[in-house]
């Protein structure tokens, strides 16, 4: 059974060179993170001191459906006229899911923000980690404190059993498992 969503831990670290109407912002910046497929979102606390270089270092936990292709990071600023969007970045899921890194790998990412006109307006710095589901070691015996994983090695008849391990080794254009 495959899960219908993945849990992401997104740490909004900081932003750089934020401007509103081409002037550096003075304070009151926050960040909202959402997926492309549902209405779930999370928002940071407001940075009241960082000006155009705010820092949050705040972890947001977000469920991302497996069919989602991206997350959106939006930086806002509270002004006397209300909350205004400074810039937005769309982050492809392929930047932090899959590839050659293990699940649970911590990705540090920086993206260019774009304002409502599509113009460059600062940079957002985040880290993303996909939470790895914890394995349930379900057992009918209540006396066993841990379970064994693997396959018994052929020809090993002792009671402790062995585990066959395959280690991929690359040789030129082909791969062998030993």
Automatic annotation (TrEMBL):
Domain of life: Eukaryota
Domain C2: 1-106
Name of a matching Pfam family: C2
GO biological process, one term: defense response
Name of the protein in its database record: C2 domain-containing protein
UniProt-listed SUPFAM superfamilies: C2 domain (Calcium/lipid-binding domain, CaLB)
CDD domains documented for this protein: C2_SRC2_like
């Amino acid at each position: 059974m495959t899960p219908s969503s993945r849990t992401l831990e997104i740490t909004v670290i900081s932003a750089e060179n934020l401007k509103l109407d081409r002037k550096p912002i003075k304070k009151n910046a926050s960040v909202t993170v959402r997926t492309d497929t549902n209405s779930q979102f999370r928002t940071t606390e407001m940075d009241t001191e960082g000006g155009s270089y705010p820092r949050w270092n705040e972890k947001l936990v977000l469920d991302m459906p497996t069919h989602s292709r991206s997350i959106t990071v939006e930086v806002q600023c509270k002004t006397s006229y209300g909350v205004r969007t400074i810039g937005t970045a769309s982050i492809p899921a392929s930047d932090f899911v899959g590839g050659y890194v293990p699940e649970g790998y911590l990705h540090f990412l920086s993206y260019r923000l774009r304002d409502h006109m599509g113009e460059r307006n600062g940079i957002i710095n985040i880290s993303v980690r996909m939470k790895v589901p914890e394995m349930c070691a379900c057992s009918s015996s209540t006396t066993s404190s841990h379970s064994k994983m693997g396959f018994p090695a052929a020809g090993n008849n002792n009671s402790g059993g062995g585990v066959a391990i395959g280690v991929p080794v690359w040789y030129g254009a082909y791969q062998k498992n030993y």
